[in-house]
Amino acid sequence: MSLSGHTRLLAAGALIAVTVFPATFFASDALLAATFSTDTPQPTLALDDAALQADDDMDVVRDADTPQTAASDEIDAELECMAKVVLHEAGNQPRAGQLAVAQLIVNRMESGRFADTACGVVNQPGQFFQTASYNPRRDTDAWAAAVEVSREAQARQTADVAPGAMFFRAAYAAPTGFFRTRTRVVTLGDHVFYR
């Protein structure tokens, strides 16, 4: 018998077990049965309250990509704009580098030289990018970290990691004339920050 034949047999056996023994079936068993791939669609399993309660009593194992915090729950548009920029521009940087980008956005909001909202700052032509066109996955630790860092920057909960920074560039690129006229503040990860 081929491997796919074994898979079908196992999946069918799991479905029969659900039908024959619903009182002893746990919701976690449904997840196991659902992981078997077949060429034909399988019926949706309905679980009764007893099965769900029994499953609630079991230990739950999180997927490695599931955020460990609820940092991304219920965010407003301004926080979302800032988190998108933090993730896109500095998601691969150390936390201090991410915080510096978020604080830079807040610095611009407070400067009087840029828009007074996060979305206004980051969507300004020629500055960052149009955040409406960027839709990252919201179920990752990277997104949760970007939201957390952005909240921290908005609340001004920590000292500035790049005090007064209003601009930044990639550290691997040679500074253009624009950056030669600015005061260099600090290099964090792959970015150089300027006033």
Summarize the SSE layout with pairings:
Elements: H1 3-20, H2 27-34, H3 49-56, H4 77-90, H5 95-111, H6 118-122, H7 141-155, E1 167-170, H8 177-180, E2 184-188, E3 191-194
Antiparallel strand pairs: 1-3, 2-3
Helix pairs in contact: 1-2, 4-5, 4-7, 5-7
Note down, in words, how this protein is organized:
It is a single chain. Helix 1 packs antiparallel against helix 2 (27-34). The radius of gyration is 25 Å and the shape is globular. The protein is mainly alpha-helical and 195 residues long. It is built from eight helices and three strands, in the order H-H-H-H-H-H-H-E-H-E-E.
Short description:
The protein has helices at 3-20, 27-34, 49-56, 77-90, 95-111, 118-122, 141-155, 177-180; strands spanning 167-170, 184-188, 191-194. With 195 residues, the protein is mainly alpha-helical. Mean pLDDT is 74; it is low at 1-72.
C-alpha Rg (nearest Å): 25 Å
Q: Write the element-wise H/E pattern from the N-terminal end onward.
A: HHHHHHHEHEE
- The number of strands is 3
Share of β-strand residues: 5-15%
- Helix coverage percent of residues? 40-55%
**Biggest beta sheet attributes:** 3 strands, antiparallel
Distance between the termini: 69 Å
**Strand order in the largest sheet:** 1-3-2
Number of helices: 8
Structural shape: globular
Low-confidence stretches: 1-72
What are the key terms here?
mainly alpha, 3-stranded antiparallel β-sheet, 8 helices, 195 residues, 3 strands
